[in-house]
Amino acid sequence: MIEVSNLTKTYGKKRGIDRLSFTIGDGEIVGFLGPNGAGKSTTMNIISGYLSASSGAARIGGIDILEDPVAAKRQIGYLPEQPPLYLDMTVAEYLDFIFDLKVPAGELKRSAHIEEICELVGLKEHYTRVIRNLSKGYKQRVGLAQALIGNPEVLILDEPTVGLDPKQIIEIRNVIKGLGKNRTIILSTHILQEVSAICERVLVINNGQIVADDKPENLSSMITGDRKLTVRVAGPRDSVRKILRSIEGVRFADVTVQAEKGSYDFLVEARPNVDIRKPMFAALAKAGYPILQLKSMDLSLEDIFLKLVEEKKKQRDPHNKAPKKVPGEVALNVSGGEESAQEAYASPEPPEQSEEEAVSPAAEGKEEEI
Amino acid sequence: MSAIYKRDLRAYFTSPVGYVFIAAFLFVMNLVFFLMNMLTGENRLTTCYTIMLYAMMVLVPILTMRTFSEDYKQKTDQLLLTSPVKPAGIVMGKFLAAYTVFVITLALMLVQVIIIAAMSTPNAAIIVGNYIALLSAAAVYISIGCFVSSLTENQLVANIATLAINVTLFLLDFAYDLVNVGWIKQILYWISIYRRFNTFYVGVFSVADFVFYLCVSAVFLFLTVRVLEKKRWS
Ligand SMILES: Nc1ncnc2c1ncn2[C@@H]1O[C@H](COP(=O)(O)OP(=O)(O)OP(=O)(O)O)[C@@H](O)[C@H]1O
Ligand SMILES: [Mg+2]
In angstroms, how far is the first alpha carbon of chain B from the final one? Predict the structure, then answer.
């Protein structure tokens, strides 16, 4: 459905994106994952025909966006980073206008179509309100509704859940997932959980290049090759540790902090493709040390970049390890780390960052790898 | 195109801009009408309408300053430029919306004609000529305003720059009278916008002049389309 080949966009001397190529099949839901300034919005703007690439081509449904822009654009619903809203209109007037703008006469029944979309994105009660007075989350929904008008086959959504509260995020994610049943969707985000929650495939973009292209599950396992858990166990620290280490499949286990009186948090790492939760439960139960809490530690976006960028480096020059150069460059690449970490917190499944700080598993993993 | 036309026209009247333009225009013109015609008993509207040309020079930028600048500012240009409408359609929609507001204003000025007609028997040809001249002039002013607005996201800058261009064009007419070098005079004669109004004002319909105005507006509208197309390559 979407073919992008060797797309490059230069802003003055600066490269926004650099020889980007990918294909997205019919009905796929693909996530662009990347830190600030990675080139996600630039790519989307080019595919949707708002910007032109300095070189390379983008085709939508086989139509080149530069050769026949009108036919290509007809297939696309686009929610830009900042929803393009006429603030002085009511939701009803605005969607009416979009309908006039995008839908050829006689193709769809206006009121039924608009009503259906409002129902879908939860705008029914706000239908007659002036857009200026809506809260940010509802403005975002109007933006999404706008992209849906005319039932385009391709949806391009640039950070569709940014600025929403956790409840709304889940709602909108479900809406997008539902839409993806009969549509091709590209969405961008800096939140790892978001791609895992919605997408079947993820393109990790950094510095205008694709660093990884895989399923979200594979992405995390490709990076770590194993699962990490934090487990809180009531019991004496040394003997619990001993038990944990004795479990088949455990690669690493140690205390991170004393959580409550008489109980400790342990970080447990399993070998690739081994589920250690059941044996761990059995072992600890047998010893009489109850598990108070068990969480799987998803990697944060920062960890993923760290790993991916390193891996790329290794692939490129396997002999030159340059261990000192890596951290500096990583820090540069993930300059948006602070912001995305905050957003990750705002999301409903916050990653376990507090524990991470205690042991810094990412750093540890890195040392093992090098 | 018609969707953009409808929205823009509506926007003129949901914001103060349309009303301010119409009110300012009618105020100035009725004042002029009162001074030039009512007080003197003059039944030709030509003087009055010549002054209208100057009023347009100053007031039309209010009408056109928002056409593209406002869309740039609130990023709705991103919506328009990714919708299945050609840039030419976007420009025409916006141009015609502004033009319609002007035509509405002009229609309201017909009251003056009615007053004159009730009190005397004016020359119909001259009045029609005046109206054609005003409509042509408006097309030129509005297309210049649209073009300037497509260059900036700041409405105030668009307004002042349009005004500056209008004044410059106006001054070229003075230059014509002052310059004595033959070929410069010839060029000035050719590009002079204001001079050409005179034929209309005396009630003669000059096809050449009418076509000239259409061409000038077409050129500016074409340039506007180019600006929109160029934006992608920024
Ligand atoms: N109009 C522009 N002029 C100059 N540079 C630009 C322009 N737009 C984008 N860039 C640069 O291109 C790069 C990619 O920007 P882009 O907006 O695509 O990133 P992004 O992945 O969408 O980031 P974010 O997560 O912050 O939205 C950035 O380095 C940015 O500085
Ligand atoms: Mg972006």
Answer: 25
Residue type, A335: S
Q: Are A74 and B4 within 8 A, CB to CB?
A: no
Q: How far is the CA of A335 from the centre of ligand 1 (A)?
A: 13
**Residues measured by CB to lie within 5 Å of ligand 2, the ion:** A 40-41, 81
Is there a contact between B78 and A50 if contact means CB atoms under 8 Å apart? yes
Q: Which residue has the higher pLDDT, A277 or B21?
A: B21
pLDDT of residue A340: 37
Per the CB < 8 Å rule, is A50 touching B2? no
Q: What is the pLDDT along chain A (370 residues), one digit of tens a residue?
A: 899 999 999 888 888 888 899 999 998 999 998 888 889 999 999 999 999 988 899 999 999 999 999 999 999 999 999 999 999 999 999 999 999 999 988 888 999 999 999 998 888 889 999 999 999 889 999 999 999 999 999 999 999 988 788 888 888 899 999 888 889 999 998 887 788 888 889 898 888 888 888 887 776 665 554 567 888 999 888 889 989 888 888 888 888 888 788 889 998 888 877 788 888 889 999 989 999 988 877 666 666 666 666 666 666 665 544 443 333 333 333 333 333 333 333 334 444 444 433 444 443 333 333 3
Q: Which pair of tokens denotes residue B88?
A: 């030419």
Name the closest residue on chain A to residue B75, using Cα atoms.
A84
Q: Nearest CA of chain B to the CA of A84: how many Å?
A: 4
d(CA A199, CA A31): 6
Cα A202 to Cα A32: distance, rounded to the nearest angstrom = 6
Residue A318 CB partners (closer than 8 Å, separation 6+) = none
Task: Provide the shortest C-alpha distance from residue B97 to chain A (in Å).
Answer: 15
Domain boundaries, chain B: 2-233
Sequence-ordered alpha helix ranges (H) in chain B? 2-14, 16-33, 46-64, 69-73, 76-81, 87-119, 124-149, 155-178, 182-191, 197-201, 207-231
- Counting ligands in written order, the one closest to the CA of A205 is 1
Distance CA A34, CA A189 (A): 7
Distance between Cα A148 and ligand 1 center (Å): 25
Contact B81 A49 (CB under 8 A): yes
Interface test with B, best of A44, A65, A86, A94 (most B CBs within 10 A): A86
> What was the ipTM of the complex prediction?
0.89
| Ligand 1 close to Cβ of residue A41 (< 6 A) | yes
pTM of the entire predicted model = 0.80
Helix, strand or coil, per DSSP, at residue A163: coil
CA distance A205 to chain B (A): 22
Which of B67, B52, B62, B57 has the alpha carbon at shortest distance from B106? B52
Q: Which residues in chain B have Cβ-Cβ distances shorter than 8 Å to A142?
A: none
Provide the percentage of residues in chain B whose pLDDT is more than 70.
100
> Which pLDDT belongs to residue B11?
93
The residue type at B47: T
Give every CB contact of residue A11 below 8 A, 6+ residues apart in sequence. Answer: B234
Q: Is the CB of A278 under 6 A from ligand 1?
A: no
Instruction: At A12, list the tokens.
Output: 């003055």
**Of the partner residues A88, A93, A102, the one whose CB lies closest to the CB of residue B83:** A102
Distances (CA, A) of B73 to A84, B81, B149, B154, B155: 10, 14, 11, 8, 9
